[in-house]
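re the bet — no i am not wrong, look at it urself. input seq straight from the record:
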Amino acid sequence: MSELPSKHIAIMGLGLIGGSIARGLKSVSKDVVISACDQNDAALQQALSEGVIDQINSLEALDRETDILVIALPPVTAAKLMPDIAAAAPENCVITDVASVKSTIMGAVNEQPESFQQRFVPGHPIAGSEQSEYQASKPDLFQDRNVILTPHANVSSEAVAEVHNLWRLLGANIL
């Protein structure tokens, strides 16, 4: 298994998918620093007490050392927040999402500066459960599951490689 070059990961949305990403990353790399933001304070506190995340953050207080920002929010919510995400994300931070529907999100991404577009890698894990919320998250949810990355014309190959590596560490098959 390859090494995670990105040591600071931020996750927006700590439900089933976001929580499973955090759990999976902590299970493969104890050195990774994970921050999360979510409207569910109980989920954030539980994840913090379990050591799944290292800090609770807000988008506005995003750590300037964040290497990858994972947007695990519903597509419409993510699209509405895209201008704030573009403003808050550190300039070297790679951004990815986990939504199944891309048109709304990519419409919002394409309205952002080209420097942001170059760092945004659309993704969709084909994994889930009939359960939802953080309590249903599992460290091995993505093991041997497909993840579809859909690079767009403006994205950099380095950003795609970074997101590819993240999913590979979680045991996913990348398409």
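see?? The chain has a mean pLDDT of 93. told u. also The chain has six helices and nine strands. so pay up
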